[in-house]
Structures are given as structure tokens and as C-alpha cells.
Amino acid sequence: MRRLLFRLTQERVLSLWQRESRTTLAPGALRQLHSCSALVYRKHGHQYDTVRMEEMSLPALGQHSVRLRMLAAPVNPADINMLQGTYPILPVFPAVGGNEGVGEVVEVGRKVTSLRPGDWAIPWDAGFGTWRTEAVCEADDLLQVPKDIPLLGAATIGVNPCTAYRMLQDFVTLKPGATVIQNGSNSAVGQAVIQIAAALGVKTINVIRDRPNRQELEEELKSMGADFVITEEELQCLGLDNVIQELPKPILGLNCVGGRSGGLVLSSLCDGATLVTYGGMAKKPLQIPAKSLIFKNITLQGFWMTQWKRSNSKDVMQLQAMVTSVCDLVMSGQLQPPHCVQVPFHHYSQALQATVQAHQRKHVLLL
């Protein structure tokens, strides 16, 4: 069942040749075949050495398809999980790695109206296979992004900023002055939450792990708009009420860590609040105090960006509206692209190794 979930995107890209080869062409028209360099894996492995750079033939351009020259593609932890076979969706082998990235439209089929050559576009679904120099796909697999935002911002906008945007929009009504508390606040999603919340006039309490450069990290997060930064240890020992008295208690908690950290966020919420879990970096069960459920009536929710996109896949206008809204925040300067390490495509092993070793900076392949 897990393998079947992946076919929604991967097979659409890989099977275009069979479907489009049956398209009726105008008399005298010729199909020009192209190839690309791609990072391909044919089995799962616990490290990144299952990936090899290979030359791949591209399917011919059909009436409803687009040829996309990839410009930049990040390496995310979820990409590594897919290589390892531990992600909820699994590929059909051989598979091209990468779920996120931005490309420039090179050519469009004659019935494509949503995109034109020169546009920038991003895939909306997971499993696209962005670690390649070119791709041919259905026009409906792509969403347009403006060319006047930074390249790294466009390449990394489809997952983490959209995750932050949806969690701040979908679970509770956040009016200006409301408070949100989150852990993993220095993650890419956490930084996006800080900035988008600030744009909405919403206050953030940001929980981090104690570390030698705590002061430096606190200043960095506050420069993004964080109202308070507190360590897990401080929250555990003192409690939120004894540390932060200027803000109303949080009505929304965002948890990407789990374990004790998630329990601390849960215990800090006000009566009737909602805790949204979207990750489990600690790889430990969420600690749920019974009194929070019984006496505070806390609601527990989960969120997975991929599932949200697939649930709304028939409403392309809604997907495009979300991406456009997030891009508007970037263009207005209210949302900064994450700090990234730029890696030439042929040095891909450097980016994969750094992500496996959980380096803090996101690595982005420049294609």
C-alpha cells in the first residue's frame, strides 16, 4: 500500500513517453528527443551512496506537457528518508531523487495555456524527482512562481514555507495579538512560522534546545520577528507563566520534535487550544499529560503538507493561491529565504552527506 501512494507523481513523469507517443501530430512534425543528467537510485540504503548520476532520455513533448530546465533543488531530510525507505511514500524504481525545486520552462505543448517558455515553475506534489537537469511533465504538475524572487527562495518555497503558512491558517483563527508557541524554532519551518506570524501580527514563543551559541541563535531568531526565545530546560524548570507574562497564553502550539519537548509545548497552551504535530525529530512518543486533555480540553491534530496538497489536488487554483501568497511575502521582504549552502550539481554527494549528518544549513543543488 505504501508503494502505491507514490505512483501519483512518479509514474506520471516516467510514463509520459508511452502516453504522449500516441498523440496525433501535424503532418511533417518531428519529435526531438532530449536527455538529462539525473541522480538515480535503484534500491534503498541507509546512506546516500545508493545514488548515482546517470544520463536519462526524456519523453517527447506532448500536447499537455512541459519541458522544464531545473535551476535549483534542495536536499531535504524527507529526501534522505525516501532514499532510506523510511518515508510514508516510496518510489517505483528506478527513481530520481528530490521532491522540491524550481525550474525554467523551456518548451510547452500546443494545448498548454497555464505556462509559457521563460516562466519559473515548481512541482506541487512529492516524488517529482527534482535532482535532474531537465524534466518533461504534465503542465498540471507545476505551479508558477514569479521570476523576481530570489532563486533560492523559489527553490525552497514549496515545502517548509507552505507548511508554516497552512498551519497558521487552518487550525485556529489567529487574530493580531494572539500567541503561538513552537519547538524546533530554528528549523526551516520554524523560521518561516516566525516570519509569517509576524506579518500577521501574531506573537511567537520559540522553544529551542540549549546550546553553546544560544545567544547568537536567539538574536538571529529575534531579527526574523521572534518575540520570545526560550530553551527546553528553562521551560521545564520554570514554566511558561513564570518566564513570559507579557503575552496571552498560546492558543496554538506547533510540534516537530515530540518527546519531552512536545509535552512542554502542550502543557504551555491555554484552555481549548490546539496542538499541531508535523514532525518527530526526537524519534520519541509525544508526552501527553492527562490533565491537559481532561481539564484544559486541548485538541491534538496532525499535519503533513504532502497529504494536504494531494487532498486539494483537484483545486489547482487553491494550490496556486497558496504559493502566490507565500511568494508575495517573499517579494515584500516579510519572508526571507533560508540560509543555504549552494552546491554544484556534480558535487551532489557533499549535499547528501551534509543532510544525512543533520547539518543545520539547508544544502541546495545548483543545476
From TrEMBL:
Enoyl reductase (ER) domain span: 46-367
**Record-level GO BP terms:** fatty acid biosynthetic process
Q: Which GO terms describe its cellular component?
A: mitochondrion
Q: Which family does it belong to?
A: Belongs to the zinc-containing alcohol dehydrogenase family. Quinone oxidoreductase subfamily.
Signal peptide feature range: none
The name of this protein is Enoyl-[acyl-carrier-protein] reductase, mitochondrial
Reading the lineage from the top rank, the first entry is Eukaryota
EC number(s): the record gives: 1.3.1.104
InterPro entries assigned:
ADH-like_C, ADH-like_N, ER, GroES-like_sf, Mito_Enoyl-ACP_Reductase, NAD(P)-bd_dom_sf
The organism of origin for this protein: Salmo trutta (Brown trout)
